[in-house]
Amino acid sequence: MLPIVLVGRMSVSDWGLFAGNRGWNAPENFTEAVGDRLFWPAVWFTVKYTVVTTVILLGLALGLALLVQESSRWTGILRTSFLVPSALGLASASLLFYALYSPQASPFPGQISFLGTPSSALWSTVALIVWRFAGFYMLLLLVGLQSIPGDVYEAARLDGAGRWQTFRHVTLPLLRPSLALCTILCVTGSLLAFDQFYILTKGGPDNSTVTIVQLVYNMAFQGQNDLGRAAALSIVVLAALLVVNLLQFRTLRGKER
Predict the structure, then answer these.
(1) What's CA 111's distance to the chain center, in Å?
(2) CA 219: distance to chain centroid?
(3) How many whole angstroms separate alpha carbon 212 and alpha carbon 220?
């Protein structure tokens, strides 16, 4: 609670990184933070990254969970291999992919530019996140799948339901709580993305991959050294995140009903 109070205090103060608190400065901090030339590009990029990552990651995780749902000779090996990347820290995984994408160390041909254009930088970062987190979300969905009673599937088969009908009308509805949890975690994590872009792209090329959290960091420590504006932007991000999560809860709860 204390850090939030301190950030709130900074957000209404002229608070430099080295100069300290120099008095009241509201609402200038908020208007200047939102008026920053990178604010709206960062918001748009963060939203785009969140949508792309969430759709791909949850779709792949569900496919992997369905693949290893039934116990067999090879499912244990597959589950472990899918889950291993989740044991690696995000910063470590980002450094690993940075080396993978580097022209000096990459096993891929030098003509491939993984981080040289805005589009390639986005998709290269999405590939990292999917590799890192697919196994984690697979595990959450697998727990949900295994909690579905077998009697339900037996009843569906007796009613003549095919695989697609069973998946659509039985598996997905009963898996909704697990899907809701994964969606909320994925959306929240993507909206707060920082490590992967800071390590892989530093916000480039041409500030095209600056996320909203990275913009907060830049305001506080990169040249501007303005903790007041950074704190104000943090409050804006926190408020937006609360609204997004509230909408998700309301939407998913409505579907549950």
Answers:
(1) 29
(2) 22
(3) 13
